[in-house]
Amino acid sequence: MTTGHENEHFDALVVGAGAAGLFYGARAGEKGLRVLVIDHAKKPAEKVRISGGGRCNFTNIHTTPANFLSDNPHFAKSALARYTPQDFIGRLERHNIGWHEKTLGQLFCDERSGAIIDMLLAELRAAGGTLRLETTVSNIALTDSGFQIMTSSGPVSATRLVIASGGLSIPKMGATGFAYDVARQFGHAVIEPRPALVPFVFEGRAKTDFAEISGVACPVRASNERAAFDEAMLFTHRGLSGPAILQISSYWAERETITIDLLGGLDAPAALKAFKAGHPKKSLVSALETLLPSRLVAMLAARGDIPDCPRLADLSHAAIDALVDGLSHWTLKPAGTEGWRTAEVTAGGVDTAGLSSQTMQSKSVPGLFFIGECVDVTGWLGGYNFQWAWASAHAAAQA
Ligand code: FDA
């Protein structure tokens, strides 16, 4: 037991007992390193617990480097190739943790996500690692043989210092900018962190209109010049959410517009022309209600995004084509995002230019590693961020 004063030595001190830190601790312990994992929170891996609606979308079987954003799109390739979704699935199966695919390659636990936390903790214990919660770091100094770290439970020296303290998303869960502070202390650049996988908020007329149909969802294509996503969109009291919106938010910058194809995947011109032929006396609103939720159609009509047309017989095919074109390129300018309060992840982070893509080790400070979300590698929605946490931790533990 520590008195809080004597100096303890570990081969690796890991700051952050989240997905990446716990996974690293177990892998490094298996390699024979004496590992201490510390976290300022009362409980480890709280984001694993709440993830995927409580069932943790722990990986995506379609993972490729193209599913990640980074200033250097090549950086994640090596780690992702050396620890794959199949590798993680194999681990779950050895622990008898049931899983299923929901959609788009997204794998979830059959039971609660706590099963994954139990697995991570059991593996850390089995590998001889120590976990110390409610512990903070107040100072880090370089020594001849590694690092001297002042923690709230006493001084620790370590040959390796592994920063796994995550990003800034959801401050009320204990997110801090600790990793960025350490990076800057040791001369690393930090790509400006920004909220990602986050709902958009709107102002003025759009905000009122969207709030009125809050809860309505429909499949769309959300795009800008950098990316496009075919998934569901949800109207909310403050603006827009749903998977398609969360995805495009990661590629959005302040003051930019986004384009929503409300008729994504539908052959709308053919459907509307066929409806007109069968029901010439019906209204355009009735026709559109066969393709879109009726509350959305009513909102679009009230906004003037749909022409007033009580009898389809009066609507030319050219007018139908023009209408479809408008609804396929519904251009919106969000006022902003919901910010750190609800962002699922942090884009940006420790600049990969200063890290080895093989090991996540600092190129300038031997023994210093950054893994998981604090690094400037950000996954799409759908299990990619945990896959990065596992893969980057695995890469660092091989070093
Ligand atoms: P993570 O944030 O998990 O862990 C960091 C740890 O460091 C925390 O335990 C924290 O307390 C600790 N810490 C922070 N600052 C510290 C300090 N100064 N001192 C000591 N300790 C400190 N991803 C996915 O792939 N599938 C999914 O289903 C979901 N779902 C999801 C839902 C919600 C609501 C959120 C907010 C996020 C997700 N994610 C997700 C994203 C995923 O949770 C995230 O990318 C990983 O948890 C990142 O793992 P890390 O270990 O890097 O950081």
UniProtKB/TrEMBL annotation:
Gene3D superfamilies: FAD/NAD(P)-binding domain, HI0933 insert domain-like, Translation factors. Its EC number is 1.14.13.-. NCBIfam families: aminoacetone oxidase family FAD-binding enzyme (TIGR00275). Residues 11-398 form the RsdA/BaiN/AoA(So)-like Rossmann fold-like domain. It comes from Hyphobacterium lacteum. The lineage of its organism: Bacteria, Pseudomonadati, Pseudomonadota, Alphaproteobacteria, Maricaulales. It is an enzyme of class 1 (oxidoreductase). GO terms for molecular function: oxidoreductase activity. Keywords: FAD, Flavoprotein, Oxidoreductase. It comes from the Bacteria. Residues 194-345 form the RsdA/BaiN/AoA(So)-like insert domain. This is NAD(P)/FAD-dependent oxidoreductase. InterPro entries: BaiN-like, BaiN-like_dom_sf, FAD/NAD-bd_sf, RsdA/BaiN/AoA(So)-like_dom, RsdA/BaiN/AoA(So)_Rossmann. Its cofactor is FAD. Pfam families: HI0933_like, HI0933_like_1st.
